[in-house]
Amino acid sequence: MHVIHLSVECFPLAKVGGLADVVGALPRYQRKLGVDAWVVCPYYDKPFTRDNHFSPIAKGTFFQGSEEFHYEVLKETKDSLGFPLYLIRIPGKLDREEVYCYLDEAEQWIAFQHAFLHWLKNSQIKPDVINCHDHHVGLVPFLMKYADDFKTFADVKTVFTVHNGQYQGWMNWNKGILLPAFDTWKWGLLDWDGLINPLATAIKCCDAFTTVSLGYLQELYEQANGLESLFSSEAAKGYGIVNGIDDAYWNPAEDKLIPVNYDVESSKKGKAKNKKAFCEKYGLDETLPLLTYIGRFATEKGADLLPEIIVDIFSNPENKIGIFILGSGDVQIQANLQALLAAYPGQLAAFFGYHEALAHEVYAAADMILMPSRVEPCGLNQLYAMKYGTIPIVRGIGGLKDTVIDVGVRNGYGFVFPEADSTDAVSAIGRAVDYIGQRGKMQRIRRKEMELDFSWDKSAQQYINLYNRL
Questions:
Q1: Taking 80 as the threshold, does the pLDDT of residue 439 lie above it?
Q2: Where does ADP-alpha-D-glucose bind (predicted)?
Q3: How far apart (Å, rounded) are the C-alpha atoms in residues 190 and 165?
Q4: 339-377 pLDDT, tens per residue?
C-alpha cells in the first residue's frame, strides 16, 4: 500500500507544534508495518534543509490566478528520517524561514496543494491513500474530485486528520479565482458561512477523517468553532486515534540530550542527578518539588492562567516548590511571566523561546508538568513527561482525559482537574505535592507511568486498518 502524508510541518524539518511530531514519526512506524509511506512538505530555509542533501526530481509550472508559478520537487537523498521526504519549493512562496504568520498564507497553501497535485499528475504517481493533515491541505480532497486537471485522482482515497479544529484556514471568496479550475456547481463544498473554509471542505469531501484522540472527536460534536453541525452530520466517517510518541527519540535510557540517562529501575537516582544539574543551571532549589510548563503561550493552552497560578502558589509561604517555564507565543502572557521572575528569584525560572534540547532536560529534571488547557486535541507533552517519570497535572479535556488517569481512580498515575481556572489548577498542584511527599508514593507512580505504552506502534496500525477499510 502506498500512502502519502501531506503536511506543512514535519519534525525535524519544521516544527511549531504537535503536528510536526506526528508527521515526523507516524510514517516511519507505518513503514515498519509494511506500508510505503511518504511525506510531502513545503520547502523551508531552515537548518534541516541546509544540513542535508536534497536532489531535484521534478519541476513544473502552473498559473494561480494570473500569476505564473514555477515549482521544484526535492527529495532528501538518504531517507534519514526513516521515510522518503519530498519538499516542494516555489520561489517567493515556498522557500521561507518560518512556517506561519505571513500575510499571504492563503496563497502559500493554495500554491502548495496545487503544485503537489500537479507533480503527482505529471509524474504519473498515484498512491492508494493521501492522508492530509490539518486545514493547510484541506482543499486537496475537493480538488482531487472536482478540479478539471486532477479528476484522474478521484478514486484515490483521502483521509483527513484534524490536529486542531479551532484553526480552519478561512478565506474570502475573492481567493476562489486562485484555485485550479473546478466544477463550479460544487462551490457549496468549499463554502461555510459565506467563506471558503478548507477544514470544512476537507470534512465534506474526504473518505474518512480522524482526530488525534477519541475524546477530542466527541468534543468536536459540541465545540468546533462553528463546525459542530458539520462534524455531527459526517460522524459516520469519523475516527478517534490517539497520537503516539516516538519512543526511540523520547527515551530517557538513550536520550543524548540529557546529562544522565536512566530507565525505570534507575529512575530515582537518574532523575535526581538530572534535577540537580538543572537546578544549579537555573538557580532553583533542588530539594524542592519542581513543577514545569512547556509549550505555547496561548489561551487555548491555558497559558494565560500561569501568572495567576504562580502568584497564588507563592503568596502562600507554606507552598515550597520550584517552577520552570519553557515556551513562547502571546507577547502579553510572556511579559506577565517576565515580570514575575524578579519577584520570585530562586523559586521561578524561565526560558522564553523554542528549545528542543532544553525540553528534554526539563522532562528529565522535573517532578511534575502542568497542562491547564482549554482545548487539547491530544497533547503530547503529558506523554513525553510520563516517559521521563514526570507526573502530569492536567485539565480533564480532549486527549488529556484519554491519556491521564487520576490517582484517585484505580490504577491512576496523574492528577486531573475539571476546569481551566487557577483555583482548580492550584488545588491539583497541591494534591500532587502532598502525594509525592509521602514516602514511597512518588516512586510507585513514577514506575507505573514509565511502564505505560504510548508508542506509535498501536496507533500506526489503527491508521493502516482504516486505510484498508477504505
A1: no
A2: 15
A3: 16
A4: 999 999 999 999 999 899 999 999 999 999 999 999 999
**CA gyration radius, the chain:** 23
What would the mean pLDDT of 189-201 be, rounded to a whole number?
Answer: 98
Kindly give the residue spans of alpha helices, DSSP state H, lying in 40-162. 47-51, 105-123, 140-146
Annotated binding site: 15
pLDDT at 5: 98
pLDDT band with cut points at 50, 70 and 90 for residue 127: very high
Distance (Å, whole) CA 163 – CA 18: 8
Element (H, E) at 400: helix 398-403
pLDDT score, position 437: 85
What nine digits make up the cell of 21?
511530531
- What SS3 class is residue 247? coil
Does pLDDT of 184 surpass 80? yes
Q: Write down the H helix ranges in 167-245.
A: 198-205, 214-220, 228-233
What whole-number distance in Å separates Cα of residue 178 and Cα of residue 250?
42
Eight-state DSSP code of residue 158? E
Whole-number Å distance between alpha carbons of 388 and 263: 8
Mean pLDDT, the chain, rounded, equals: 96
Binding site residue list for ADP-alpha-D-glucose: 15
Which residues in 304-332 are b (16+ Cβ under 10 Å) and which e?
Answer: bbbbebbebbbeeeebebbbbbbbbbbee
For residue 204, how far is the Cα from the chain centroid?
A: 23
Closest CA to 38 of 4, 2, 72, 13: 4
Whole-number Å distance between alpha carbons of 191 and 88: 27
Residue 163 pairs with which residues in a beta bridge? none
User: If 0-12 CB within 10 Å is exposed, 13-18 middle and 19+ buried, where does residue 259 land?
Assistant: middle
| Domains of the chain in sequence order | 2-244+457-469 (3.40.50.2000), 267-453 (3.40.50.2000)
Amino acid identity of 109? W
Q: How far apart are CA 219 and CA 394, in angstroms?
A: 17
> All 3 cell numbers of residue 52?
542535508
